[in-house]
Each structure stands twice: as C-alpha cells, then as structure tokens.
Amino acid sequence: xxxxxxxxxxxxxxxxxxxxxxxxxxxxxxxxxxxxxxxxxxxxxxxxxxxxxxxxxxxxxxxxxxxxxxxxxxxxxxxxxxxxx
Length: 85
Fold this sequence. Notes:
mainly alpha, 2 helices, rod-shaped, DUF2934 domain-containing protein, DUF2934
C-alpha cells in the first residue's frame, strides 16, 4: 500500500468517523469504507472500456426476424333482432 493512498484513506476514515458522531469501536468499518471510496476514485477509467464494448455490441445489426402479418380484426357481427313474444 502506498503511503499516499494510506494517508488519504486515514483522512477519509477520520471524516467518516466524525460524521458518524465519533462512535467507539467502528474504526474498521470506517477504514474499509474509506478504502473503498478512495479505490473507487480510480475505477471510472477502468469501467469506460466495457461501456464502449457494450455500445459496439449494440451497434451490430441483429439478424432479421420474419415479420408476422398484422393482426386483422374480424368484422363485427350484425346485431340479431329480438324475437317478439
């Protein structure tokens, strides 16, 4: 672990601890959260490549499916006259 990264994590963990109301015994959770946040700052560059691949994949033409004929409604039946009683 580089000293710069460790120092950044330490500072962020301290901020998280203060924002949480300075609880005792939660230092590992604060450290882990701070480390995740610091590491995530570098990740967007890595995540950009998969998005480009997904966009290229979406741009590929898909195989044409046979089109189904449009559904034609049956003509309405004429109303039957009521029988006289």
